[in-house]
Amino acid sequence: KNQVEQSPQSLIILEGKNCTLQCNYTVSPFSNLRWYKQDTGRGPVSLTIMTFSENTKSNGRYTATLDADTKQSSLHITASQLSDSASYICVVSAPPSGAGSYQLTFGKGTKLSVIP
Amino acid sequence: EAQVTQNPRYLITVTGKKLTVTCSQNMNHEYMSWYRQDPGLGLRQIYYSMNVEVTDKGDVPEGYKVSRKEKRNFPLILESPSPNQTSLYFCASSLGLASLSEQYFGPGTRLTVT
Q1: B83: pLDDT confidence band, cut at 50, 70 and 90?
Q2: Which of A6, A68, A79, A108 is the most interior residue, by most CB within 10 Å?
Q3: Which residues have CB under 8 Å from A92's CB, separation 6+?
């Protein structure tokens, strides 16, 4: 069964510090991996989309890495801000089998709290 | 402005009273999807649609119906809501689900069934 495991479940850091969130997956075959940011009570917003050939991708202070061999990804946040407080969700896409749709497998997310 | 809208944003209802949550997108996207999000379980797909008149079940379709009569709209119907359908619901759309199509989520509908 395809699974996406995220760690830690929750994390509290001081404003200005860096942090790294982990995502391990068993999805195979693999199409791409996405990181989303979800503010409390709001819809997820895409941060990065990475294909198997991409090792690193940045979006401002967010840097995602992908190791398709070990099926691991990380999201590194640099110089955290209070506005980074949110849940971060890892989503892995598998190509369709037959005429169906791409299949998305969602992680349960890491809840990040940035405190002053 | 490109967006996915949902209505209502909040709804409290009673068991068995049929309800519809509307979803609309203005990006001419082919792919639309409904998710529910529950504490500790993450986002789970209810139904999706790859185009007009093409819908299919996701991971948790029981108790829900959808329709896709127009490209922009994808309503979620609960014919006989039950308390276990109390949840936060998100509609999403994308150009397709091809490798790099970005998925846009609506603001969410918080449903409480008593």
Answers
A1: very high
A2: A6
A3: A2, A4, A25, A27, A30, A32, A33, A34, A104, A105
The answer to whether A43 contacts B44, with C-beta atoms less than 8 Å apart, is no
Model confidence over A31-89: pLDDT tens digits? 899 999 999 989 999 999 998 888 999 999 999 999 999 999 999 999 999 999 999 99
State whether residue A44 sits within 8 Å of chain B by CB: yes
Residue A112: C-alpha distances to residues A82, B30, B48 (Å): 10, 33, 30
Q: Does A102 touch chain B (CB under 8 A)?
A: yes
How big is the CA angle at B38 (ends B54 and A1), to the nearest 5 degrees?
65
Tell whether the torsion through CA atoms of A18, A24, A27 and A30 is positive or negative: positive
- Residue A99 backbone phi and psi in degrees, to 5: -95, 10
Nearest residue in B to A109, CA atom:
B42
* Residue partners of B101: CB distance under 8 A and separation at least 6: B31, B94, B95
Nearest residue of chain A to residue B4 (CA atoms): A43
Cβ B43–A51 below 8 Å, yes or no?
no
